[in-house]
Automatic annotation (TrEMBL):
[2Fe-2S] cluster binds at residues 106, 137, 197, 269. Residues 47-265 form the Radical SAM core domain. It comes from the Bacteria. This is Biotin synthase. It comes from Microbulbifer donghaiensis. One of its GO terms (molecular function) is biotin synthase activity. It is an enzyme of class 2 (transferase). Pathway: Cofactor biosynthesis; biotin biosynthesis; biotin from 7,8-diaminononanoate: step 2/2.
Length: 355
């Protein structure tokens, strides 16, 4: 690929066309990974990965019909339903997550949207987890303006609400809420001043044009989501997608690389489906620009072998977990980023794609 065509990659853009995105997907694999890695190094330390932990604060019995989800009440997956977790129990899990090296604690509830009576509990969770010195994220379904504001006032850092797939393929996966509903919740989260975590799932039978459509939707939002989880479908028995064909791992890695190029300053997260990936596939995902992972909730047990396995992989790859830094203001963030970039540019292995 001619070097000149790399010039504009690395800049934040919000005007991607589907053809431009498909052109990225069509690059030879090595060119795509090389480009993504260069873009990655413009904005991030390539050897640091942010670690989040996910805690299910209310499990199962969800009225929605997301075809991939074992928590939907419509599918018989054998999942045990649990009511909203007590605040003290959530804090116990958050402390364990922090001790395992997580800097962000994500709390998820299987709701269509939170009810008025739930809000005092979830906002208390946000305040108390923050007091432990962790970043907070919640995913509670659709929000109205007041709920978004309440969460922001409690100090919630991130709100997760995924778009899942392209607008065209969406109807194959969910019928109980619209794409527009999702975009409106994302808009409310932004308007209330919180950071956005939004991504999708790969391997649900969608085509490349749908993957391109999903990434186009995310990248063409007025602001890129700060976190972009790219999930690989976990085929759960009892859900409509249990028989879906296996995804070619290279298709998944391509998606990570294209997300990195299109949203150069976002944290691109490897989340669901990571357990099914080999160490080599995860390493390739980091090379393609993934720089955030989830420790699953089951990893919060005492033995925690999976977490140890993650740390061993980090060690084998020379990766450090990203530290949580609380900045007083945006100027401090810019200054820190500029310092990191200068440091990278002095690195003899750094190649400036913009020149
Ligand atoms: S809204 Fe969330 S919890 Fe409910 S079925 Fe969809 S993905 Fe599952």
């Amino acid at each position: 690929m001619p070097t000149a065509s790399l010039q504009h990659y690395g800049e934040s853009r919000h005007d991607w066309t589907r053809q431009q995105v498909l052109d990225l997907f069509a690059l030879p694999f090595n060119d795509l990974l090389f480009t993504a890695q260069q873009v990655h190094r413009v904005h991030f330390d390539a050897n640091r990965v942010q670690v989040s932990t996910l805690c299910s604060i209310k499990t199962g019995a969800c009225p929605e019909d997301c075809a991939y989800c074992p928590q939907s009440a419509r599918y018989d997956t054998g999942l045990e339903r649990e009511k909203l977790m007590k605040v003290e129990k959530v804090l116990e899990e958050a402390r364990a997550a922090k001790a395992s090296g997580a800097t962000r604690f994500c709390m998820g509830a299987a709701w269509r949207s939170p009810k008025k009576k739930d809000m005092p509990y979830v906002t208390q969770m946000v305040r108390e987890v923050k007091a432990l010195g962790m970043e907070t994220c919640m995913t509670l379904g659709m929000l109205n303006d007041d709920q978004a504001q309440e969460l922001a006032d409690a100090g919630l850092d991130y709100y997760n609400h995924n778009l899942d797939t392209s607008p065209e393929y969406y109807g194959e996966i969910i019928t109980t809420r619209t794409y527009q509903d999702r975009l409106e919740t994302l808009g409310r989260v932004r308007a209330a001043g919180m950071k956005v975590c939004a991504g999708g799932i790969i391997g649900m039978g969608e085509g490349e044009k749908d993957r391109a459509g999903l990434l186009m939707q995310l990248a063409n939002l007025p602001d890129h989501p700060e976190s972009v989880p790219i999930n690989m479908l976990v085929k759960v028995a009892g859900t409509p997608l249990e028989e879906e064909r296996d995804l070619d791992p290279f298709e998944f890695i391509r998606c990570i690389a294209v997300a990195r190029i299109m949203m150069p300053k976002s944290h691109v997260r490897l989340s669901a489906g990571r357990e099914a990936m080999s160490d080599e596939m995860q390493a390739m995902a980091f090379l393609a620009g993934a720089n955030s992972i989830f420790y699953g909730e089951k990893l919060l047990t005492t033995a925690n072998p999976e977490a140890n396995k993650d740390m061993q992989l980090f060690q084998r790859l020379g990766i450090q977990p990203e530290e949580y830094q609380q900045y007083a203001d945006e100027a401090a963030v810019e200054a820190e980023l500029a310092a990191q970039i200068t440091e990278q540019q002095n690195d003899p292995f750094f190649y400036d794609a913009a020149k």
